[in-house]
Amino acid sequence: xxxxxxxxEEFRAVVREYVAREVTPHLERWDEQRLVDRDxxxxxxxxxxxxxxxxxxxxxxxxxDYRYRCVVxxxxxxxxxxxxxSGFGINEDIVGSYLTELGTPEQxxxxxxxxxxxxxxxxxxxxxxxVGSNLRGISTTARRDGDEWVVNGAKTFITNGYTSDLxxxxxxxxxxxxxxxxxxxxxxxxxxxxxxxxxxxxxxxHAQDTAExxxxxxxxxxxxxxxxxxxxxxxxxxxxxxxxxSIAYRALAAxxxxxxxxxxxxxxxxxxxRPVIDHQNSRFRLAELVTEVEVTRAFVEQxxxxxxxxxxxxVQAAKAKWWTTELQKRVVDACVQLHGGYGYMxxxxxxxAFVDGRVQTIVGGTTEIMxxxxxxxxxxxxxx
Length: 384
Hints:
This protein is an alpha+beta fold. Helix content is 51%, strand content 17%. Strand 4 and strand 5 (179-188) form a beta hairpin.
């Protein structure tokens, strides 16, 4: 049974037109300015490329079928727009999902319409300068003071951090040092005491703005608590499978795009009087890569369908995330090699894919953390 149906392909035509008009012509400039223009966000909102899964009453598409989000990832990967895809993913699959699942009616009405329209950009502030994948080490605090929360701390490596209009902050709000309690707080840009540090220079994803964020006695209303006080860690745990599925699917789409570019290149480039693809070493290597990617697609599609039915758990999401992102590294590296010297030239999309993809095994939890999650589940099962 095909993964995509007729309505998904109809939507693909809309997304492809949007990408051709609003994304592809600007990729080089966005890399140079290290920022995606707001016009691209607004155009995405106008075309229904954003807010797909948000409720219709808040300007969204009201579509719970995650395959529509997969279509967007496919089309952005096809032109090498990984930075745009990652930024959209924060709005759609992380902050938008938190607001949809945990937000009060007032919070949803205040923020979801702007996110769906592309008028607002959001970020998720978890990572700290001294804390990586171990969320229990977070030191940013929020204390209750009457009808307000007072936030103090610093975050780093925050995607969309430099331009975000809304930040979801993970902060300690109680508990013991060894077992802290966390909560999620909505901090709008412009709140006194909230500031941004430098726009971080990265190896890849140059067009995706990434920043340090600082909170110095930042006061937000008590109504800005997202979810239940002290249950932030559990909220994160509940939402992380979607974040990891989002990363996994983007990795798969990147693999497929890299192979498409490489098949075209090796068919048109001659070496020793024959196209590169007609040499046995190239054919065998491409055969290996295509097979790995097609097998991986079958697994990832299964996880997407599991998510739609409410059956995607943390372990399956971890499997999808670590396997696809490590595969992305292998596939893109091999495709660079098959391009020869041109694979190292920045004007070729495979070169951009090489540097853009390296972070995939780190963001959303490193490969090692994913294996730990899977390994612990095996230990638990063996102990029964």
